[in-house]
Amino acid sequence: MAGAARLHQRRRGTNRPIESASSPQPRSPEIAMQPRVLSGMRPTGAMHLGHYHGALKNWVRLQDEYDCFYFVADWHALTTHYEEREVIGRSVYEMVVDWLAAGLDPEQATIFVQSRLPEHAELFTLLAMGTPLGWLERVPTYKDQIEKLSDRDLATYGFLGYPLLQAADILIYKAAFVPVGEDQASHVELTREVARRFNHLYGRSADFEHQVAAALAKLSKDDQRYFAKQKRAFGETGLAEPLAKGEALVQRAAAGIDGWTAQQTELLLGHLRGAGRSILHEPQALHTEVTKLPGLDGAKMSKSYGNSIAMREEPAEVERKVRRMPTDPARVHRNDPGNPEKCPVWQFHKVYSDKATQDWVWQGCTTAGIGCLECKQPVIDAILAEQKPWRERAEKYLSNPKQVHWIVETGTERARTVAKQTMRDVREAMGLLY
Ligand code: TRP
Ligand code: SF4
To answer: What residue spans of 324-400 are helical by DSSP H?
Structure first.
């Protein structure tokens, strides 16, 4: 898929993407150099193990290596849950507690709430002006979700705009990477198209050519030739390599040339791509290996299907739920052999058990050597062990709600600095500075 990047190719220091100098005051120079990652989750209920293994675990991993912005997408929740404001209100801080419990470190990651930043709505509105209706109607999740969530009326303006609001979330922070599941890949793709279109429509200032020439003149002759070569190669082939090389050169110039401005960085990056100034940055989807943990019945884990285990589910409840999990229907009696591939418990073993335990399951199941309750015990133990540190951390935060509010407050203000700067650039580019 275009625009996809694999985590392991993105080590610190290599091919470092654009960090515009118009970004907020860095917390430390080290962190400011890290490419930005942005992702959000909808507060529609307690987080469960499926969320943890499918997304949150990855968020925690990314925070060491990237400048991570994670937010509660409460407006996105409203697109489907506009008739149930209680759910959202209840879930916002609960979800943040789950994030912190899972190991998100507020010192490293910026945690905030979407609706606290009206700038997202402003960008959404401005982008909406030039976004063709067909682009939104054709996003695969659109018809999909309308069909799946047939108990809700999703023939709304807000729901059609869902991916465009998401695009605004991403573009407002000039995020380099967006960790999302496969189901959201089309939204990142749309975001890229929206950014490209915006830059195309508004990225060319009146004296663009003149400004480009002035910026290029600051480079050495060799660098000028090298840049021209990469630009030509990218224009002809569209390959990522010349683009990355050209971008690296611009970043070196930004870091090393006295009097170089952030605007010149933007200008040359835009020029390199053959567009005008790149005001909004095209993000890349970050597909990391995530673990798929199905629900207790083998279908997708979802609170609304009643097949989930909450991250902070009580131990007795965990035990009860796993013990009641359906198994291979062929194992009616204790001495009927089974096939793990037909059993959701096996899917849990694939996530939670080591090789030795998995071998024990496979052998025991197919020969009727073990019973299903016996088979489930290691899963129960592993879930309880996994939850233990979550529960401990969560308790600390739950007993001090002010601290959680403070974390969100700090994150929101940090995010606001970036969002405001982008909006200034956007308004200027669109000619809204009367
Ligand atoms: N649509 C995402 C989801 O349902 C949530 C989301 C909203 C998001 N805005 C985003 C994810 C921006 C990544 C980036 O999971
Ligand atoms: Fe499933 Fe384990 Fe029972 Fe086999 S023994 S059917 S894998 S629970």
So the answer is: 344-352, 355-366, 372-398
- The answer to whether the beta carbons of residues 376 and 323 sit under 8 Å apart is yes
Ligand closest to CA 369? 2
pLDDT in tens, 307-319: 999 999 999 999 9
98 pocket-lining for ligand 2 (C-beta < 6 Å): no
Question: What is the tens place of the pLDDT at every residue in 315-341?
Answer: 999 999 999 999 999 999 999 999 999
Q: Is the dihedral of CA 34, 39, 43, 45 positive or negative?
A: negative
How far is the C-alpha of 172 from the C-alpha of 157, rounded, in Å?
22
pLDDT in tens, 56-97: 999 999 999 999 999 999 999 999 999 988 989 999 999 999
Calculate how far, in angstroms, residue 320's C-alpha sits from the geometric centre of ligand 1: 33
Across 40-49, 263-272, 347-356, 423-432, least confident range: 263-272
Helical (H) or strand (E) element with 178: strand 177-179
Contact 18, 175 (CB under 8 A): no
Which ligand 2 atom is nearest residue 362's CA? 7
Determine the residue of 321, 345, 366 to mutate for testing ligand 2's pocket, defined as the one with the most ligand atoms within 8 A of the Cβ atom. Answer: 345
Task: Report the Cα–Cα distance between both ends of the chain, in Å, rounded.
Answer: 41
User: Using CA positions, which residue lies closest to atom 4 of ligand 2?
Assistant: 365
Q: Which ligand is nearest to the CA of 173?
A: 1
Going from the Cα of 327 to the center of ligand 1, the distance in angstroms, rounded, reads 34
- Dihedral sign from CA coordinates of 237, 241, 245, 246: positive
What pairing do the DSSP bridges indicate for beta strands 36-41 and 67-72? parallel
